[in-house]
């Protein structure tokens, strides 16, 4: 293009040159976006961790002059990003471009003198901004970023404004998913916690896992954290035949006992030294010992575990599945939202199906499509390169990290069709004899008599839904059948301004919890097809049984 410009009038040349640079900028932007998109799970985690280490969390007065605030902090170095949000008052997250800025900032800050009490002199990156005198209110207020999910009514309203059910499911995902700022805040809270644990274990890292990073997190979900001590075991010198030194260490009875003792001490530190950390509970006897607490400045409920590398690998696996096809995340968000609306899942631990199990069920369903939408876990292992090799406590957790190695078959099913068939699939699944196995991508004979058997993807002798009892499974099956049947009613799929339609109609109280199907919509429903009629017949019988069982429980 540049050559082509030569010999043209100067004015025309300028126009061409600016078009060229605009095109160049556009191409660069696209390349950068593609590079960002193709980063591995590990690379994304590392980048976010590093950003968090260069960030501070500041509690601010309610009326804040953003410009003055940023000018004041900029004395310590360039600010990359910042945002404001509300949690027990106004707060700001400020990310500097270099860690030196944090050191410079910390040097200029004092431990406050508190009256009638005494302060624990722990210098964290959780700060308070004092603004002397009253601020003039004629400056514009900064924008506060929302950190909570919309209510079910707000969701219903938003969905009613869409044109198709596919659009509804996309909109649901965009509305519920974690925002960039929310993810940054999650990494920052982990990094603040690391500063506490780092007093004992300077090489440790606290990493978020679960729905904070697996791409299926909903605003308001908990922050699952792992205390990663792997850096401590890294050997600094090669073993030779000469003299060598090693650390003297205390010994515990088992790995589990050591994990419990570390978590118990860190739990105490978090409780007694951690600013903003309240309601600390050490749940050390659980299968996976943990410290649970609320972090008030962020508003997050946190679960800190240790020695839990398999769970991190599961998060990577779900992230990878979420990236492989654009229909996976909307389908998982919809199923999770539907399950929560019908109390199939709960925030209280118990005999309920968990979000993790539901996600694995969606993956399994998508492996069953013809042609399959998602590959099996065995296939992901076959495609792995030497650097992907990963064995944790004797379990081969190897999966390919480079998505470009995975070839997918052409499948054009719409989200509406997939959701409907998800309900039909699990409404008819032989749970009494078959287990769900995403490693093979095929149902297997159930090795135990538990109600629901979903093979743990990496610890293959374990069942991730062992906690689910027969009543909860029956409720899930009954609701799947009811939703499958509802979606067969063409009326439900028609846009309507006077009553919830499409996905919103599936969130209304169910027939098994007392309300009749017909009370959902006053319009006349079409007769069910014979396939669905059978489903409906069994729904009526099963629904009755479930209600009776629930009543007598
Ligand atoms: P939310 O409900 O949004 O918090 O989803 P989540 O995926 O974060 O689930 P949860 O907080 O219950 O668990 C965090 C992570 O722990 C999951 O993503 C899994 O990786 C892992 N996990 C949860 N439950 C089990 C289980 O029963 N077995 C195994 N092996 N891992 C589990
Ligand atoms: Mg979680």
Structural commentary:
The structure is a single chain. This protein is of the alpha+beta class and 553 residues long. 43% of the residues lie in helices and 11% in strands. It contains 19 helices and 13 strands. The strands form 4 sheets. The protein has a 5-stranded mixed β-sheet, with helices on both faces. Strands 2-3-1-4 form a 4-stranded mixed β-sheet, with helices on both faces. β12 (434-435) and β13 form a beta hairpin. α3 (41-53) crosses α8 (180-197) and α7 (165-176) packs across α12. It is globular, with a radius of gyration of 27 Å. Residues 1-10, 514-529 and 539-553 have low confidence and may be disordered.
The main β sheet shows up as: 5 strands, mixed
Uncertain residue ranges: 1-10, 514-529, 539-553
Overall helicity: 40-55%
Q: How many H/I helical runs?
A: 19
Strand order of the largest sheet: 5-6-9-8-7
Shape: globular
Summarize the structure.
The chain has helices at residues 2-5, 10-37, 41-53, 66-74, 99-107, 152-160, 165-176, 180-197, 230-233, 255-273, 309-324, 328-341, 355-367, 377-382, 415-427, 470-488, 490-493, 503-506, 530-552, and strands spanning 55-60, 79-86, 90-96, 126-128, 205-209, 223-228, 277-283, 290-295, 300-306, 391-392, 395-396, 434-435, 444-445. It has 553 residues and is α+β, with helices and mostly antiparallel strands. A hairpin with a 4-residue loop joins strand 8 (290-295) and strand 9 (300-306).
